[in-house]
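Example S7 (structure tokens).
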């Protein structure tokens, strides 16, 4: 697959504060690429550099094979951008603002109505944007970003300030754009759920450093190999597994369940060996990390990174 966006060793300081350091990743055509990290991690700085709003101190960006800053205008022709706090003409209506964006992007006015409908703004489209809520401004920002059918869409926290319904609508739009139009999307959030719902791969960033760049299941299972099992003879299972090699950690969970951390044993073999002991296995499934756990474990990931940087 073609590489649409490549980011190589980006670093940026604001005064003495390092916002990002050595950020490297690449995004393939048609991929939805999530950037996940807590507040202040460096998501917006990274996306602002990619979209030419901030100059990096070091590093290179290439979009559609075109280099920054030399070929910036050409590179941005097919890019739609939603920044963290999109700006509009407040004394103009949503439609009037969209017309201005159409002129800038050389898009047809006929795109405006269906797009405003898609982002759920059609009923308010004649109202002045100055009276819009944060969520409505976000929807209008997204509408402007997708005008002109961009091949690459860069969305900085498109779901922040949106209610659950708005979040669903936006994520559904991202999915549709990716599946139907084959639009490549780079989307940031500090909510794992949002990133998980749409992304093929995720970049985890914290304190300006990339900690991880892989698929969501790999992110949530990184480090430990934990399984939940529900059996018909929990005490027998506990006693048996407690003495078995290939089990790193074992814990009872309630009446009939155990959590098992495997080390050198495959989950299918765990199932087989329990059944061979006459223990009925009702459920066996991997336990994924929650986002809260993941963010709490960021220190550990920084440590890991210092020893061996996980590859893409
Ligand atoms: N214009 C600026 N001037 C000074 N410091 C800045 C500026 N922009 C970002 N920073 C700093 O750089 C670091 C990264 O900020 P950034 O906005 O990229 O984080 P973020 O991951 O987008 O966070 P959030 O989830 O809160 O949006 C933070 O410590 C922030 O304070
Ligand atoms: Mg941000």
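Recovered sequence:
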């Amino acid at each position: 697959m073609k590489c649409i966006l490549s980011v190589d060793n980006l670093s940026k300081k604001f005064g003495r504060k390092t916002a990002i350091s050595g950020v490297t990743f690449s995004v393939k055509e048609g991929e939805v690429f999530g950037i996940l990290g807590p507040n202040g991690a460096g998501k917006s700085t990274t996306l602002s550099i990619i979209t030419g709003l901030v100059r990096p101190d070091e590093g290179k960006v290439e979009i559609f094979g075109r280099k920054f800053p030399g070929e910036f205008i050409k590179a941005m022709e097919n890019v739609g951008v939603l920044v963290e706090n999109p700006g509009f003409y407040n004394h103009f209506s949503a439609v009037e603002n969209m017309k201005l964006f159409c002129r800038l992007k050389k898009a047809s006015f006929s795109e405006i109505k269906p797009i405003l409908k898609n982002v759920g703004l059609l009923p308010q489209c004649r109202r002045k944007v100055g009276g819009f809520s944060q969520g409505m401004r976000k929807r209008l920002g997204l509408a402007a970003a997708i005008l002109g059918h961009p091949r690459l869409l860069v969305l900085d926290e498109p779901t922040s300030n949106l209610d659950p319904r708005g979040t669903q609508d936006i994520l559904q739009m991202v999915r549709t754009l990716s599946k139907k139009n084959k639009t490549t999307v780079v989307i940031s959030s500090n909510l794992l759920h949002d990133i998980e719902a749409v992304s093929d791969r995720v970049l985890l960033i914290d304190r300006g450093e990339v900690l991880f760049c892989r698929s969501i299941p790999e992110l949530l299972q990184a480090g430990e190999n934990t399984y939940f099992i529900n059996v018909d003879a929990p005490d027998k299972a506990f006693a048996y597994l407690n003495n078995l090699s290939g089990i790193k950690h074992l814990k009872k969970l309630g009446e009939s369940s155990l959590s098992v951390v495997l080390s050198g044993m495959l989950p299918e073999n765990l199932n087989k060996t329990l059944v061979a002991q006459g223990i009925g296995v009702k459920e066996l499934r991997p336990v994924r990390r929650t986002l809260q756990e993941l963010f709490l474990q960021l220190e550990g990931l920084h440590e890991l990174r210092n020893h061996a940087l996980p590859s893409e």
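Notes on this example. Residues 3-78+151-220 form a domain with the Rossmann fold fold (CATH 3.40.50.300).
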